């Protein structure tokens, strides 16, 4: 399921200094073999978050195995994801895949009338045989009408990496969001799947601040997607939602530029962007935010001694790399050596990049062998990487952190800032214990 293939980069390999701002950082662009999960992985957290949706992957047994093993082999009586397996006769063109898909979807919806939204999720095999899931979704949506909405997006490893699956899913939901009336009062939309407990913490803070909330995307129920319009402002909770941000902008919704809510500083900046946009009195903002910010700072301080001065490299994986490197360098005094990311959303992360220490090597895309050579030459104290790379690097005496843990753990906001710092401290503690 870890994939490695040549995917064309937008521009050739080499250093790109950027074309607009003269102060743009140097970015090493790479293409070549990649080792990263595909976008199907997002189903693992999306199916828990969106409680009235069902994700039907149209794929192979490999896709089914990925979902089952990544989901910790969760066998429910009534799960909310499944794989419609494309068999050899489908691949050989001996069966009409559209008919087969209709049959399976009907079977599923007849048996599970509680499904309010069905996502047909594309995979490498469905893409290779050019199965038009957009057409299938339209046809099934027309057939099931008001009862079940049928949408589609791609989680294929050819088109998407890891967290891009969430981006594709949320972008597919944007056209379904109702239009807010033209005279609707301004309100804030939170964008990005967060654990419910973290989302609730943020909603409580916005309520205390007096920031009016339109809702969240994804909503816990697709049946109650919040209305949006030109008076809606949105804050991204995740840095990998480029397509979703574009789809919202097309609906006239304005993005509030902010750091991402990691650590005391990132969270404060994120909340402040909303407070300023909604004209909240700065003194009131400070009063509401100060207790959480102080708690976060204290929790982070417990890990500073262990992490300060330690060198860290990120291999491209979750697209969280840039804001996390900013958090680690600004609040824990770590030294980012190389920060690799599959895609650098320049517009969404410009402020994050500007806060990285001078000389940080930023790389976009992946050429696995070259990147591993650089890690071996740099010998950082900690390397954040995918599951498949961690063991070989550990065997070479390098401490590693699984990038996937950062996606599956609650790490946003004031209350999680200490845990976030601890996720990076733990492998170093383990290394020290093993040395003893
Ligand atoms: Fe593998 Fe592609 Fe299926 Fe992902 S979508 S599990 S990369 S075959």
TrEMBL record:
<dbReference type="InterPro" id="IPR050293">
    <property type="entry name" value="LIPOR_BchN/ChlN"/>
</dbReference>
<keyword id="KW-0547">Nucleotide-binding</keyword>
<dbReference type="GO" id="GO:0051539">
    <property type="term" value="F:4 iron, 4 sulfur cluster binding"/>
</dbReference>
<feature type="region of interest" description="Disordered">
    <location>
        <begin position="1"/>
        <end position="16"/>
    </location>
</feature>
<dbReference type="GO" id="GO:0036070">
    <property type="term" value="P:light-independent bacteriochlorophyll biosynthetic process"/>
</dbReference>
<dbReference type="InterPro" id="IPR000510">
    <property type="entry name" value="Nase/OxRdtase_comp1"/>
</dbReference>
<keyword id="KW-0077">Bacteriochlorophyll biosynthesis</keyword>
<keyword id="KW-0408">Iron</keyword>
<feature type="binding site">
    <location>
        <position position="124"/>
    </location>
    <ligand>
        <name>[4Fe-4S] cluster</name>
    </ligand>
</feature>
<feature type="domain" description="Nitrogenase/oxidoreductase component 1">
    <location>
        <begin position="38"/>
        <end position="427"/>
    </location>
</feature>
<dbReference type="GO" id="GO:0016636">
    <property type="term" value="F:oxidoreductase activity, acting on the CH-CH group of donors, iron-sulfur protein as acceptor"/>
</dbReference>
<keyword id="KW-0560">Oxidoreductase</keyword>
<feature type="binding site">
    <location>
        <position position="38"/>
    </location>
    <ligand>
        <name>[4Fe-4S] cluster</name>
    </ligand>
</feature>
<comment type="subunit">
    <text>Protochlorophyllide reductase is composed of three subunits; BchL, BchN and BchB. Forms a heterotetramer of two BchB and two BchN subunits.</text>
</comment>
<keyword id="KW-0602">Photosynthesis</keyword>
<keyword id="KW-0411">Iron-sulfur</keyword>
<dbReference type="Pfam" id="PF00148">
    <property type="entry name" value="Oxidored_nitro"/>
</dbReference>
<comment type="pathway">
    <text>Porphyrin-containing compound metabolism; bacteriochlorophyll biosynthesis (light-independent).</text>
</comment>
<dbReference type="GO" id="GO:0005524">
    <property type="term" value="F:ATP binding"/>
</dbReference>
<comment type="similarity">
    <text>Belongs to the BchN/ChlN family.</text>
</comment>
<comment type="function">
    <text>Component of the dark-operative protochlorophyllide reductase (DPOR) that uses Mg-ATP and reduced ferredoxin to reduce ring D of protochlorophyllide (Pchlide) to form chlorophyllide a (Chlide). This reaction is light-independent. The NB-protein (BchN-BchB) is the catalytic component of the complex.</text>
</comment>
<dbReference type="GO" id="GO:0046872">
    <property type="term" value="F:metal ion binding"/>
</dbReference>
<protein>
    <recommendedName>
        <fullName>Light-independent protochlorophyllide reductase subunit N</fullName>
        <ecNumber>1.3.7.7</ecNumber>
    </recommendedName>
</protein>
<keyword id="KW-0067">ATP-binding</keyword>
<dbReference type="GO" id="GO:0016730">
    <property type="term" value="F:oxidoreductase activity, acting on iron-sulfur proteins as donors"/>
</dbReference>
<keyword id="KW-0479">Metal-binding</keyword>
<feature type="binding site">
    <location>
        <position position="63"/>
    </location>
    <ligand>
        <name>[4Fe-4S] cluster</name>
    </ligand>
</feature>
<keyword id="KW-0004">4Fe-4S</keyword>
<keyword id="KW-0149">Chlorophyll biosynthesis</keyword>
<dbReference type="InterPro" id="IPR005970">
    <property type="entry name" value="Protochl_reductN"/>
</dbReference>
<dbReference type="GO" id="GO:0019685">
    <property type="term" value="P:photosynthesis, dark reaction"/>
</dbReference>
């Amino acid at each position: 399921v870890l994939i490695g293939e040549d995917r064309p980069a937008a521009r050739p390999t080499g250093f790109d200094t950027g074309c607009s701002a003269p102060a743009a950082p140097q970015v090493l662009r790479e293409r070549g073999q990649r080792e990263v999960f595909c976008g199907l992985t997002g189903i693992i957290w999306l199916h828990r978050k969106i409680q009235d949706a069902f994700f039907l992957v149209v794929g192979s047994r490999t896709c089914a195995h990925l979902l089952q093993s990544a989901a910790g082999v969760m066998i429910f009586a009534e799960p909310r994801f499944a794989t419609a397996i494309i068999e050899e006769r489908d691949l050989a063109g001996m069966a009409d895949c559209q008919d087969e898909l209709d049959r399976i979807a009907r079977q599923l919806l007849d048996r599970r009338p509680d499904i309010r939204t069905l996502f047909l999720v594309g995979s490498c095999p469905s893409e290779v045989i050019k199965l038009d899931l957009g057409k299938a979704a339209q046809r099934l949506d027309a057939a099931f009408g008001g009862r079940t909405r049928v949408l589609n997006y791609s989680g294929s490893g050819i088109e998407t990496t890891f967290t891009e699956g969430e981006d594709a899913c949320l972008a597919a939901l944007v056209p379904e969001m109702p239009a807010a009336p033209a005279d609707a009062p301004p309100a804030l939309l939170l964008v990005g799947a967060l654990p419910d407990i973290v989302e609730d913490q943020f909603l409580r803070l916005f309520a205390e601040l007096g920031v009016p909330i339109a809702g969240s995307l994804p909503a816990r129920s697709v049946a109650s997607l919040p209305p949006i319009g030109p008076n809606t402002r949105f804050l991204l909770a995740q840095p990998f939602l480029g397509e979703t941000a574009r789809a919202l902008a097309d609906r006239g919704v304005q993005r509030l530029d902010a750091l991402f809510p990691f650590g005391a500083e990132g969270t404060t900046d994120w909340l402040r962007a909303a407070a300023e946009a909604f004209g909240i009195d700065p003194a009131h903002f400070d009063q509401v935010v100060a207790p959480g910010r102080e708690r976060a700072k204290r929790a982070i301080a417990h890990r500073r001694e262990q992490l300060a001065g330690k060198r860290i490299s990120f291999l491209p994986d979750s697209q969280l790399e840039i804001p996390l490197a900013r958090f680690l360098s600004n609040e824990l005094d770590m030294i980012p050596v190389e920060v690799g990311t599959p895609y650098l959303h320049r517009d969404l992360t410009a402020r994050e990049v500007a806060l990285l220490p001078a000389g940080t090597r930023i790389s976009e895309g992946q050429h696995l062998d070259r990147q591993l050579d650089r890690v071996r030459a740099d010998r950082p104290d900690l390397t954040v990487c995918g599951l498949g790379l961690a063991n070989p690097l550990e065997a070479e005496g390098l401490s590693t952190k699984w990038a996937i843990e950062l996606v599956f753990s609650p790490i946003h906001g004031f209350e999680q800032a200490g845990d976030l710092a601890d996720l990076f401290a733990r492998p170093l503690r383990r290394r020290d214990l093993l040395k003893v």
